[in-house]
């Protein structure tokens, strides 16, 4: 006796991905602005105090800090753009979007682990909230119309004993 395992979700499940994607996009944009601000403060302090680490040029350290803040903010804005597209279409991101969001989730997990010792539990909690939002968008249920047209997911569960 064989049975087909079909993934079924309730009617309210399709409502999950869209609002979570919008919230995650907003959080990632706020995080991008915060990251540029913090790196800008660090770069300004390094430049004004002429700080040096292991003989490095303070101007190079300041420029590197600005560049790191800009690149990281660009990465977060790109992740937010994928979230906005997901929120608009209520569909899972494509291959590139998934890779980008998985990278974002891994980065938030690693940074969350580092912030426990360096910054504290509040920063860890914030990083884990962002990680949870990204993961929820990645694994959240799909649009019911797409699920109904899918060859495996659209199958009805078989009744045993018939």
Description:
The protein has 162 residues and is mostly helical. 72% of the residues lie in helices and 0% in strands. The chain has helices spanning 14-49, 58-89, 95-118, 121-139, 144-149. The longest helix has 36 residues, at 14-49. It is elongated. The relative contact order is 0.17. The model is unreliable at 1-13 (pLDDT under 50).
Query: What do the pLDDT scores average to?
Result: 83
Cα radius of gyration in angstroms: 21 Å
Number of helices in the DSSP assignment: 5
Give the oligomer, counting copies of the same chain as homo and different chains as hetero: single chain
What structural class results from the helix and strand content? mainly alpha
Taken as a percent bin, the fraction of beta residues is under 5%
Categorize the overall geometry: elongated
Order of helices and strands: HHHHH
Low-confidence stretches: 1-13
Helix content: over 70%
| Terminal Cα span | 10 Å
Could you tell me the number of beta strands?
0
**Biggest pleated-sheet summary:** none
List the topology elements.
Elements: H1 14-49, H2 58-89, H3 95-118, H4 121-139, H5 144-149
Helix pairs in contact: 1-2, 1-4, 2-3, 3-4
């Amino acid at each position: 006796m064989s049975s087909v395992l079909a993934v079924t979700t309730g009617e309210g499940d399709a409502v999950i991905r869209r609002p979570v994607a919008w919230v995650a996009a907003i959080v990632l944009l706020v995080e991008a602005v915060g990251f540029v601000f913090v790196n800008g403060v660090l770069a300004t302090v390094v430049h004004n105090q002429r700080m040096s680490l292991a003989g490095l040029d303070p101007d190079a350290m300041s420029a590197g800090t600005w560049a790191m803040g800009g690149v990281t903010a660009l990465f977060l804005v790109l992740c937010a753009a994928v979230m906005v597209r997901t929120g608009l279409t209520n569909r899972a991101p494509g291959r590139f979007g998934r890779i980008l969001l998985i990278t974002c989730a891994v980065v938030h997990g690693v940074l969350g682990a580092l912030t426990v010792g360096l910054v504290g539990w509040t920063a860890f909690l914030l990083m884990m909230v962002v990680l949870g939002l990204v993961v929820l968008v990645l694994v959240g249920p799909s649009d019911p119309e797409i699920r109904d047209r899918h060859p495996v997911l659209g199958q009805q569960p078989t009744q045993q004993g018939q």
